[in-house]
Amino acid sequence: MTAPQYIYDGNIVGKKIAELRNTLPEFGILYSIKANPYAPLVAYIASQNVGADAAAKKEVLIAEAAGVPAENIYYSGPGKTAADLEETFDKCIIIADSFHELELLDSIASSRRIKKSVGIRINPSFFGTPGKFGIDEELCTRDAFSRYPHLVIAGIHVHVKSQELDWQKIYQYYENVFALAEKIQNELGEKLSFINFGSGIGVPYTADDKPVDLAKLSTACGLLVRKYQSKIPAKLLIESGRFIVCEAGTYTTKVLDIKKSRGKTYLIVAGGLNGFARPAVAALLEEDHVATEPLFTKHHAWTITLDGKSDEMEMVDIVGNLCTASDILAKDFLLPKAEIGDRITITNAGSYACTLSFQQFGGQQAPEETLILPEGSSH
């Protein structure tokens, strides 16, 4: 098999869902489809009673096809068009990202002669920065929302950071969101029915990364929920981000050629930049480049291994077969001496991997995807 392949382990996915559920039992879990929209994987996650966070109309439809009920699909994301909202109006809970989207939703609800419950995404003041996502907190007033008589603001959605490993920062963020929810609820004069806290819980990519202390986070959040539950009896939601799927995925590709050039050895493989773009992007960036999620998290954020049998080691550049010098998976990387036909495997390929790659560029064969289901699973 020449085509590169993504392999997803359903056992790990199930384990991560259980881990998250045990850590935060007071919260419902939404799977962020943008992390990996592979349909069989989404269907398996849905079978575990996990809802969906959809950032686009297509992701709403993917979640619907996977069997997620409409009341457990939350459609956020900026720039929704009237056509997007019309098509998804009855298929999910829509989170308005702007006043313009509220205008569009109000018009649709008016034309259908109904009152529609929606959520709003808020850009919170506790960070105080401008941003493309949501409505600034200070603009979220009863007067502002009264302009949309056919809508009921039923919940809020906040999301400001991904890939956080410090449990105390995650807890502080949750505490801030609860305080914001109380403020919005008081402003509206109505109880909120849901609070979407967004994502944030990260995964360790390197040996230097310490995983989130889930035990401490669980204890602290349990106390926090009890503090607020009488004042805000809302459904509490978190988005899983990469937490569920990142470590469940591996990427494997074949060595097509080996070239020596002026003292450097190149392993040419199928599917570099156009197969798994994140290592290729990292190889092009300076060592001090800051995280730019989800395209770049950090350098050396995966383990690369070779299935060859040689005991001899050599320093190589692993490059793809596209006609561009930027098609690099790893530079000056120590591996067992390879032979043509050997396979290279890269870890942490379950999230923001296949769909971030430039598969249309260069006319090469696209990666294949496979889900290995847990034994006895019907999905």
Automatic annotation (TrEMBL):
- Tell whether Lyase is among the UniProt keywords: yes
Q: What is the lineage of its organism?
A: Archaea, Methanobacteriati, Methanobacteriota, Stenosarchaea group, Methanomicrobia
Where does the Orn/DAP/Arg decarboxylase 2 N-terminal domain lie?
14-245
Q: What is its EC number?
A: 4.1.1.95
Matching SUPFAM superfamilies: Alanine racemase C-terminal domain-like (SSF50621), PLP-binding barrel (SSF51419)
**Orn/DAP/Arg decarboxylase 2 C-terminal domain: residues covered:** 9-350
On whether Iron is a keyword of this UniProt record, the answer is no
Active-site residues, Swiss-Prot/TrEMBL: C323
Residues the record lists as N6-(pyridoxal phosphate)lysine modifications: K34
- A Pfam match is Orn_DAP_Arg_deC
Q: Which InterPro entries match?
A: Ala_racemase/Decarboxylase_C (IPR009006), De-COase2_C (IPR022643), De-COase2_N (IPR022644), Orn/DAP/Arg_de-COase (IPR000183), PLP-binding_barrel (IPR029066)
UniProt keyword terms in alphabetical order? Lyase, Pyridoxal phosphate
Q: What is this protein called?
A: L-glutamyl-[BtrI acyl-carrier protein] decarboxylase
Which co-factors does it depend on?
A: pyridoxal 5'-phosphate
Instruction: Give one GO molecular function term.
Output: diaminopimelate decarboxylase activity
**Gene3D superfamilies, A to Z:** Alanine racemase, Lyase, Ornithine Decarboxylase, Chain A, domain 1
The Gene Ontology biological process annotation of the record reads: lysine biosynthetic process via diaminopimelate
